[in-house]
Amino acid sequence: MLLLPLKHSISQTQFNSTHHLLKSTSSRSAARFHHQRRLTHRHQVSLPLSPGSDYTLSFNLGSHPPQPITLYMDTGSDLVWFPCAPFECILCEGKPNPSLSIKPPNISRSAVVSCKSPACSAAHTSVSSSDLCAMARCPLESIETSDCSSFSCPPFYYAYADGSLIARLYRDTLSVSPSSTSPLLRNFTFGCAHTTLGEPTGVAGFGRGLLSLPAQLATFSPQLGNQFSYCLVSHSFDKERVRRPSPLIIGRYDEKQKINGGEAAAEFVYTSMLENPKHPYFYCVGMTAVSVGKKTIPAPAMLRRVDSRGNGGVVVDSGTTFTMLPARFYESIVEEFEGRVGRIHERASEVEDKTGLGPCYYLQEGKVDVEVPSVTLHFVGNNSNVVLPRKNYFYEFLDGADKRRVGCLMLMNGGDEAESSEGPGATLGNYQQQGFEVVYDLENQRVGFARRQCASLWDTLNSNSN
C-alpha cells in the first residue's frame, strides 16, 4: 500500500468573496461536464476532460537531483503530464496554479519515447505506428522496413473545455512519495508540455488507460495497480479545514486498520463499473434514483446504463466539484426540495445569480437548525444506496454586508436531456464525495462508497505505515 496526501487547492488560492469562489467552481464544473458531451463528436478516442481544479498531489521526478512536481489528481483522464522548462502558459491569468512556487523541471532529450512504442500510440489514440513514424519525419525506407526505433514520438495534442496543450512523451524515474521506502518507478512515461493555452498546472490521470498512474504502477506491482481509494476531508470551502490532508491510498490495506471514531468503520456500498466503448478511461456507474426525504425520484433510463455508442451512465470524477444531473431529473429534485424548504424560507435569487448555484434560501435568524430533507443516491445493485451527509448537498454561508445567512443546494443542472443524450448523462462530483472513502476496485470492476472520518483515517494509516 502507498499512502499519499491530497491537498485542496483553495488553501493556496485567493478569492475576493464566497460568491467569487462558488461562481468560479460552479462554472468549472459546468464547463467540464459539457466538454464530456462534445468529446463524442471528436474522432479521438482518449481526449481527457478539462483538468480537475481541486485536489493536488506531489511527486519527485528523476534522481540527479530529484525535481518536485505538483499535479491535479484526476480520475477523468488517463495521462500524466506537466509543464517542463522552458514553459509558457497563454491566457492563464487568474487560474488556480498550486505549483507556482515550483520551477518546471528540466527534461533530458535522451528520455524521449520512440514513435514505435505502444505508449506513443496510446497518446495518439488509434494512430498506427507507420503514421506516427511519418509524423516523426521518419524516412520512407525506415517506415517500409519497420525500423523507426531511433525516432522520437511526435508531439500530441490535447484539447480541453477551456484550454489545450501540445506535449511530447518522455520516460524518467518517478518517486510517488517523499518517503525513503517509496518505490522508484523507472521508465515512467509522462507528457512534457512547453506551451499550453489556459492550462497552467499538470495532471495525474487516474483513469482506465495504458498511460494512467494506476496502470503504470501495475507494471511495477500488480497489487498497487488493481485498486486505489481516496477519502476527501470535508471542507465546505473553509481554508482552515482543508489544511488537513485527504488520504489517497494506492493498493489494498488491512481492513482491520480502518478506524472511524474509535469503532469499526462502515462497510462499503458497491456498484459495478460500466464499460464505455467511446471513452474507455471513464469510471462509469449506473444511477437508478435520488431520494429527497421520503420521496424517491426515478432517474432517466440514460443514467442507468451506457449504450454501444458510449452514451449515458454517471461518471465518478475526482476532477469535477459539483454533481451535474440532466435538466428534468434535476428539476424534479429541486421541486421536491423547494416544497420542503421553500415554504419556510425566502428564495435568495440574487445569491443564485452570483454563485451559479440554486435553489438558495435566506435562512431565518436565530434558528440554528434549519430543517432540510435528506438526500440519498441510489445506484445500480442490491442495496447500493449512498446517504449524503447534509453538508455534502446544502451549504450555508453569510451573504453581503449585512451577513444574512444563506443556504444553497449543491447539485447542478447539466442541461436538457436531449442535448445530453450524447456522452455521459451525469457526473458525480467530488463535493458530494466528501467524508466518504471512495474505492476504485479495478480487479472486480466496481466502485465503492463508505462513510469515514477522513482526517482520522489519514492519521491511523500514516501512523501504521511509519
Could you provide a short overview of the structure?
The protein is of the alpha+beta class and 466 residues long. It has two domains: 10-19 and 48-221, Cathepsin D, subunit A, domain 1 (Beta Barrel), CATH 2.40.70.10; 263-454, Cathepsin D, subunit A, domain 1, CATH 2.40.70.
Tell me what the structure shows.
The protein is of the alpha+beta class and 466 residues long. It folds into two domains: 10-19 and 48-221, Cathepsin D, subunit A, domain 1 (Beta Barrel), CATH 2.40.70; 263-454, Acid Proteases (Cathepsin D, subunit A, domain 1). It has nine helices and 28 strands. The protein has helices spanning 18-38, 118-123, 129-135, 140-144, 213-220, 222-225, 327-342, 349-355, 454-465; strands at residues 2-8, 55-61, 67-74, 80-90, 156-159, 164-175, 184-197, 202-205, 227-231, 246-250, 259-260, 263-264, 269-272, 284-285, 287-292, 295-298, 314-316, 323-325, 346-347, 360-362, 375-379, 385-387, 394-399, 404-409, 411-413, 426-428, 436-441, 446-451. The strands form six sheets. The protein has a six-stranded mixed beta barrel. A hairpin with a 5-residue loop joins strand 21 and strand 22 (385-387). The chain is globular, with a radius of gyration of 22 Å.
